[in-house]
Amino acid sequence: MLARTERPSHGPLARAFDRFRLNGAALFGVGIAVPLLLLIVTYPLWWRFQPNDIDLLAMNAPPNATHWFGTDGVGRDVFARVLEGGRISLMVAAGSTVISAIIGFLFGFVSAFAGRWADALSMRFVDLVMTLPPVIFLLVLASITGTGILPTIAVISLLSWPLLARMVRSRLLELRERDFVTAARGMGAGLPHLLLRHGMPNCIDIMVVYATTQVANAILLEAGLSFLGLGIAPPAASWGNMLNAARSTAVLEQYPWQWLFPGAALVLAVLAINFIGDGLRDAFDPRAELH
After folding, report:
1. By three-state DSSP, how is residue 61 classified?
2. Locate the ABC transmembrane type-1 domain: which residues (predicted)?
3. CA 142 to CA 155: how far, in whole Å?
4. What pLDDT score was predicted for residue 6?
5. What is the C-alpha to C-alpha distance for residues 74 and 59, in angstroms, rounded to an integer?
6. Integer distance in angstroms from the first to the last C-alpha of the chain?
7. Rounded to an integer, what distance in angstroms lies between the CA atom of residue 263 and that of residue 81?
């Protein structure tokens, strides 16, 4: 009698991917985000205008065959500036997300594994940061660090990590009581071993969902800071400072393309990333296994 062979079950990551690709809203977000990302990354290779090229003969030109999104008050191509603004927003979002994820994860790990006093001190510091008024804290930090890409990354990073620290701590407090972690600690495993062998692999789902959500938040924060003049300073292109430059009544009424296209790009990017983040959160939700 032939032995019965069973089909191996999918791992948790494969099941999460299966749930993600069945999520219509998440796929819609991917369908927006991927073409937008390709445009942002590749436009210097095929678009004839640079973001800061000035053409005084084409000032405030409406959308046409030459300038697809029209031009601004000094003749700069709005299409190139929208895509360059997206590139800067993604740089700020990616950089601040990586930094805040590292800070938040390390705080959460140390709080869970380094002992009672470390837990108490780190969590009180997290509580202190979270009780600060976010808008005021953001404006104060931005006024101290100044404008530019690196200061904006620093400001958003310092504001964004406490929530991740709490989530990681909650996951690792449950993990440290499991037998394999207790055995590893009993055999003399130090914090670096626990971090790399047990902490990071068991927090991948939290980190992925956090990163996706934080990218959207960082894009909004960068746009808000740039709109207020505390983020990316002109003449560098940013969705926020493009909206700031078009805030006058004359521009709003007579040249709507100067604010409509950067505003639409900002909304579409954040909406797409939020859809993807919601899909990832649902895909990694362990309760989905029960349905």
Report:
1. coil
2. 86-277
3. 6
4. 45
5. 5
6. 36
7. 12
Q: What is the pLDDT of residue 10?
A: 64
Tokens for 243?
């909206």
The span from the CA of 73 to the CA of 30, in Å, is 34
Query: Which pair of structure tokens corresponds to residue 93?
Result: 């979002």
Architecture in CATH for domain 19-43+71-284 = Orthogonal Bundle (1.10)
Looking at 228-248, list the stretches that DSSP marks H as alpha helix, in order from N- to C-terminal side. 239-245
Measured distance CA(17)–CA(27) in Å, rounded: 12
Q: Are 266 and 81 in contact (CB under 8 A)?
A: no
Global pTM exceeds 0.70:
yes
CB 96 within 8 A of CB 153: yes
Tracing tokens 């939290």 back to the chain, one arrives at 206
d(CA 50, CA 112): 50
pLDDT at residue 84 is higher than 90: yes
User: What is the number of other CB atoms lying within 10 angstroms of the CB of residue 54?
Assistant: 14
7 has a pLDDT exceeding 70: no
Angle separating helix axes 204-227 and 134-145, nearest 10 degrees: 70
Q: What is the pLDDT of residues 202-227, one digit of tens each?
A: 788 888 889 988 999 999 999 988 88
The CA-CA-CA angle for residues 217, 45, 50, to 5°, reads 70
> Measured between alpha carbons, how far is 129 from 136 in angstroms, rounded to an integer?
12
Token pair in block for residue 147: 């404008």
Separation between Cα atoms, residue 181 and residue 178, nearest integer Å: 6
